[in-house]
Design a protein that fits this description.
With 216 residues, the protein is an alpha+beta fold. The chain is 40% helix and 27% strand. It has seven helices and eight strands; from the N terminus they run E-E-H-E-H-E-E-E-E-H-E-H-H-H-H. The strands form two sheets. Strands 1, 2, 4, 5, 6 and 7 form a six-stranded mixed beta sheet that branches. It has a two-stranded antiparallel ribbon with strand order 3-8. Strand 6 and strand 7 form a beta hairpin. The chain is elongated, with a radius of gyration of 23 Å. The N and C termini lie far apart (55 Å).
């Protein structure tokens, strides 16, 4: 079995490139981890869908990954890296073979993996898709987080009786006054869905400011 040594991984339910890692994320310092060269079609499935692998594959990688822990190391039970000579991805499975988490790699470490697998034999993993992941590949993790926050706040604003707050938000977003509640909500929701003129950022900072002034 082939291994890569001394790399950093950031396991999450969704796949995040290194530039989407947050300071709050738990980063694993990997001592060694198995590496497999796979077809690009399998890589696309792993990155964009929820998958499951066979028990035989789980047995092959069981406890083969080691992570630095304090001054010693510990094992990660079902973990490996896959690479198609273009990109690399670390994956973590549960005891039934379902993918629990995945991680991108730092740029230089991903290139190290790509260079490493060039001479390896191609492996067709025993995997199947269990469900598709609904996400927008053209926005970053931060943008997605901001959008989700804003959509929740707009939903609550629709149910609110505070018309003055809605009018103030509308003025902040569009620079003009409006009195019709439905007109304001419709235009704000449309702008949020299309992120016109960075409306999401404006609304996000507006509500964060309001929250800081009215802590609960």
């Amino acid at each position: 079995m082939n291994f890569i040594y001394d790399i950093l991984l950031n396991f999450n339910k969704n796949f995040y490139e290194f530039y989407d890692w947050n300071r709050e994320d738990h980063i694993d310092h990997i001592k060694k981890i198995p590496v497999f060269k796979i077809p690009s079609s399998d890589m696309e499935m792993i990155r964009m869908q929820n998958i499951q692998v066979s028990n035989e594959f789980l047995e092959k990688i069981e406890n083969r990954t080691e992570v630095f822990h304090n001054k010693s190391s510990r094992s990660l039970k079902y973990t490996c890296i896959v690479c198609d000579e273009r990109v690399a991805c670390a994956v973590c499975f549960d005891g039934t073979g379902k993918m629990e988490a995945k991680s991108g790699l730092l740029l230089d470490e991903e290139q190290e993996v790509i260079d490493f697998v060039i001479t390896m034999d191609l492996v067709k993993l025993p995997l199947e898709c269990t469900s598709k992941i609904i996400c927008n590949p053209f926005i970053t993790r931060k943008e997605n987080s901001v959008q989700n926050y804003v959509q929740k706040k707009i939903k609550h604003l629709k149910q609110s009786t505070d018309k003055d707050l809605l009018q103030y938000l509308y003025l902040e977003c569009f620079g003009i006054s409006e009195k019709n509640t439905e007109e304001m909500l419709t235009k704000i929701r449309l702008a949020v869905s299309e992120n016109k003129n960075h409306i999401n950022e404006k609304i996000y900072h507006f509500f964060k400011f309001i929250s800081s002034k009215n802590p609960r």
